[in-house]
Recover the amino acids of this structure.
């Protein structure tokens, strides 16, 4: 009993619903493509950054070669550049800051991860660390410049050490405070991953809590703790503002902890604005160097963390 | 027997000493925060006055304020968010949806690399890209640098939040015949809203206080400027330029620091509230 007109209507309906389906499919495909395009965009961005850094540092690399890293004269007026003193300054401030921060960050990690996992004390300390991590580095810089430096002069006078008020020591001190929250929070997380049966087994053998922490928990979570330290080391290497405000900005080679110095990041911040020609290329080259080092430590640290958390 | 008792006692003493040392070191970590906040609030509060918020002007000048810096930071931060948030969220969705395969592993490493790039190097690159060709510092180039800083934070937070959305919700939506884009936009993203929003807020708080990438991109100015293709002053920038001054200049530096700390801490606080209040539990 199908009349021709009805048939036609049916056909029209399927036609329109097919169109609607195609429409939806088109949107769906474009949406998937859009998501993917964003990821590709991100990868291209990093690629373009690397290429820019490499291309712009070529004049400096061809002119100075490897001696750039071992030279100690830095004289933009005469186009003489050697970055050794900044490499030394960067490593000194960062390693010293790690040395200062490790006792504190490990204590915090054990304190929050084992002894006080909840309660008022733990939430107070937790919020304090979060706030410390959230304070901009320029604020660390200004407090370091006006408050910490005079304090350090007085403090070091007690030990009969002449201190100019600015220098490697101030920078390392400030960096240590800045990186404590990072290594502490990572170390805390891995310490909490230690399986309970391991701890209970040790307790049942008569171990004290001190022994459980130092002989079971810390060895077990060592790789994660190490990863946290690597990550905070990467941060310390790349930190700019707080360091440049207290480090003294001296381009002389200096091996003394209490002397003036400068870091790679700080030198770039001070000179890149007015740099051109070879000077610009030299700054780009030390920037590339800094980026490779910090990225290496950052990626290595995250890789280790991923490995350790997959283990459980 | 006596020896055993002695041993146990010694062990217990060690245990107590250890707890003591740990506690002292941990609580000492609060001291820097108290010192920083105390001096920022004391010095900042004394330099805060009506004039500071209503005037612009050069550093060290009589009656100079930070109005231009407040406007500049707001504008640059907003523009950076406008660029970074859509890209970051969409890329984060892709990362959460595609967890397997070599390419997604590579993309993850790229995000890590991006997070590891020092901010000063980022500023340098963006300066080479935008400032040098146009021969002019600009707020726009500063926003681009800050947007690149924001990206990895937004991506990571989006990815990690969306991974927590249970697959059953998505399967239910698929079973109803919903197309992919509606599932993501109407179901998955709203489920992870609190986490994504927290990520965005944390990223905004981070870039609002960032100085290093702005020194040679947005550069700074002594007057109110709304044009994003001209140099623009920011709050961190004004602190950096005025801290070596004494008297009027130092006072402006403390006032600006006070404003910046309040701003950053408020955003962090909002982020905390958002994650606690709006959290969707599965």
């Amino acid at each position: 009993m199908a009349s021709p007109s009805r048939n036609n209507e049916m056909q029209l309906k399927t036609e329109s619903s097919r169109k609607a389906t195609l429409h939806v499919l088109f949107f769906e495909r474009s949406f998937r493509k859009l998501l993917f395009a964003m990821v590709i965009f991100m990868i291209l961005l990093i690629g373009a950054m690397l290429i820019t850094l490499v291309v712009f540092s070529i004049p400096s690399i061809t002119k100075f070669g490897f001696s750039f890293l071992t030279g100690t004269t830095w004289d933009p007026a005469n186009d003489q550049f050697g970055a050794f003193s900044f490499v030394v300054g960067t490593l000194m401030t960062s390693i010293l800051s790690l040395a200062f921060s490790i006792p504190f960050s490990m204590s915090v990690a054990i304190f929050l991860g084992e002894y006080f996992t909840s309660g008022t004390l733990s939430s107070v300390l937790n919020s304090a660390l979060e706030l410390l991590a959230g304070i901009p580095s320029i604020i660390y810089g200004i407090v370091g410049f006006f408050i910490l430096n005079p304090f350090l002069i007085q403090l070091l006078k007690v030990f009969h050490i002449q201190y100019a008020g600015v220098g490697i020591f101030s920078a390392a001190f400030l960096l240590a405070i800045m990186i404590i929250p990072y290594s502490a929070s990572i170390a805390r997380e891995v310490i909490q991953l230690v399986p309970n049966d391991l701890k209970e087994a040790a307790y049942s053998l008569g171990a004290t809590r001190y022994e459980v922490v130092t002989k079971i928990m810390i060895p077990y979570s060592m790789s994660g703790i190490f990863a946290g330290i690597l990550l905070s080391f990467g941060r310390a290497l790349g930190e700019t503002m707080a360091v440049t405000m207290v480090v003294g900005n001296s381009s002389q080679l200096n091996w003394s902890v209490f002397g003036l110095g400068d870091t790679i990041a700080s030198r770039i911040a001070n000179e890149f604005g007015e740099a051109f020609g070879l000077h610009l290329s030299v700054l780009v080259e030390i920037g590339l160097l800094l980026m490779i080092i910090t990225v290496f430590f950052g990626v290595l640290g995250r890789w280790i963390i991923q490995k350790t958390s997959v283990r459980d | 027997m006596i020896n055993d008792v002695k041993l146990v006692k010694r062990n217990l003493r060690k245990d107590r000493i250890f707890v003591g040392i740990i506690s002292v070191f941990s609580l000492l970590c609060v001291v820097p925060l108290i010192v920083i906040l105390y001096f920022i609030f004391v010095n900042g509060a004394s330099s805060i006055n009506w004039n500071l918020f209503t005037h612009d002007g050069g550093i060290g000048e009589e009656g100079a304020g930070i109005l231009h810096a407040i406007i500049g930071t707001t504008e640059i931060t907003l523009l950076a968010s406008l660029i970074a948030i859509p890209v970051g969220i969409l890329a984060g969705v892709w990362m959460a949806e595609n967890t397997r395969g070599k390419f997604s592993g590579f993309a993850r490493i790229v995000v890590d690399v991006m997070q590891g790039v020092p901010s000063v190097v980022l500023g340098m690159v963006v300066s080479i890209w935008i400032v040098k060709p146009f021969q002019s510092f600009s707020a726009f180039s500063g926003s681009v640098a800050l947007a690149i800083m924001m990206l990895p934070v937004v991506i990571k937070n989006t990815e990690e939040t969306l991974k927590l959305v249970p697959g059953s919700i998505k399967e239910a939506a698929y079973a109803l015949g919903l197309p992919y884009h509606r599932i993501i936009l109407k179901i998955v993203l709203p489920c992870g809203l609190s986490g994504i929003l927290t990520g965005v807020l944390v990223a905004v708080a981070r870039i609002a206080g960032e100085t290093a990438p702005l020194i040679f991109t947005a550069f700074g100015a002594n007057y109110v400027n709304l044009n994003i293709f001209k140099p623009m002053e920011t709050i961190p920038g004004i602190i950096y330029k005025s801290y070596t001054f004494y008297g009027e200049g130092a006072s402006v530096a403390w006032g600006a620091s006070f404003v910046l700390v309040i701003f950053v801490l408020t955003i962090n606080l909002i982020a905390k509230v958002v994650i606690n209040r709006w959290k969707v539990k599965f």
Notes: The domain at 69-311 of chain A is CATH 1.10.3720.10 (MetI-like fold).
